[in-house]
Amino acid sequence: MATGNGNHEAQQTEENFVQFYETWKKQQNQHLQELITASEQVSSPTPPTDGITACSSSSPPPPTDGITATNLSNLVKRVVEHYEEYYKTKSEWADKNILQILSPPWTSSLEDAFLWIGGWRPTMAIHLLYSKSSLQFESKFNVWMQGKLTKHDLGDLTQSQISLIDELQKNTIIEEKEITGKMAKQQEKAAGADMVELSHLVSEALREEEKGTKARDHEAEQSQAESSLNPKEKGFKKILEKADNLRLRTLKSIIETLSATQAVHFLIAAAELHLRLHEWGKARDEGQLSGGAGHPIFQQEA
Questions:
Q1: Which residues belong to the signal peptide in this entry (predicted)?
Q2: Mind listing the pLDDT tens digit for each residue in 119-144?
Q3: For the range 268-272, what are the long-range contacts, defined as Cβ-Cβ under 8 Å and sequence gap of 24 or more?
Q4: What φ, ψ does residue 157 adopt, rounded to 5°?
Q5: Could you read off the pLDDT of 12-45 as tens digits, one per residue?
């Protein structure tokens, strides 16, 4: 718990990371536009099949015509590297102020409700993949029923891809539970003997000061608090590292399972969800401050 210069450093940490995050978010939006453009340039129609199914044992067809597989792969690589940059910078700022990274003031109340140890839950990425795949397959099915060709996307997941993703989901759930357990044990340390004893001693000193019988030694109390809290903050940092590592590994594993074209569609869905949740959350927060649902984004047309 920092005071004085510590508070100033904490404020700088917040301001600097907010600046980075806003820049990173703008770049994510730029990447989104590039991904959408690339998805529109891909011309690899998928013909209707007998007894249309959600997957097949064959490998996904490579993109043709409008954009090359190499260009698609390079675009996907750049977007993934952008995520890597985020987690690298986040880790650096966590060394300076782990508590703000775990409870980021730059996110909205809506986003906070979905947070899991300072970020998105890794299994959510897999759920996102299945949701988008289902939506695109449904759209593809309707086109197929008209005897038309469709473009290659997440609606074309093969049986082997689904098996790999299912296995990834099982392993990710196990790791999520392990990290969640570590976080629970870390949080329980707030009621550890050292914290209980220190809070009692400081409370006693406060009562003595209020009675006028003894002056408090604020410097000594602060030193004791720092000695007790610093190890706990380091523990939180280690848990955040595990959580962020799992988030990034899950993202990369999904990308590695997909074709370049499918990866583009997945990254589009991921960026759209993140950007819209942030936008909706900020709008809701502003609406609550200025009179609830009065914000323009929530006003229904007459």
A1: none
A2: 999 999 999 999 999 999 887 766 65
A3: 268/32, 268/35, 268/36, 268/39, 269/128, 269/129, 269/131, 269/132, 270/125, 270/128, 271/28, 271/29, 271/31, 271/32, 271/35, 272/32
A4: -60, 135
A5: 556 688 899 999 999 999 999 999 999 988 755 5
Q: Are 13 and 100 in contact (CB under 8 A)?
A: yes
Q: Tell me the mean pLDDT in the region 273-300.
A: 74
Q: How far apart are CA 32 and CA 259, in angstroms?
A: 18
What tens digit of pLDDT does each residue of 152-163 get?
899 999 999 999
Beta bridge partners of 150: 46
- Residue 180 CB-half CA count within 13 A: 12
User: In which element (H, E) is residue 150 found?
Assistant: strand 150-151
Are 55 and 159 a contacting pair, CB within 8 Å?
yes
**Band of the pLDDT at 218, cuts 50, 70, 90?**
confident
In what helix (H) or strand (E) does residue 242 lie, and over which residues does it extend? helix 218-257
Q: What does the block give as tokens for 302? A: 């007459």
Cβ atoms 161, 257 nearer than 8 A: yes
| Sequence spans of domains, the chain | 71-85+107-287
Element (H, E) at 45: strand 45-46
Closest C-alpha among 270, 297, 300, 299 to residue 281: 297
Distance CA 258, CA 165 (A): 10
- Residues 286, 287, 289, 294, CA torsion sign: positive
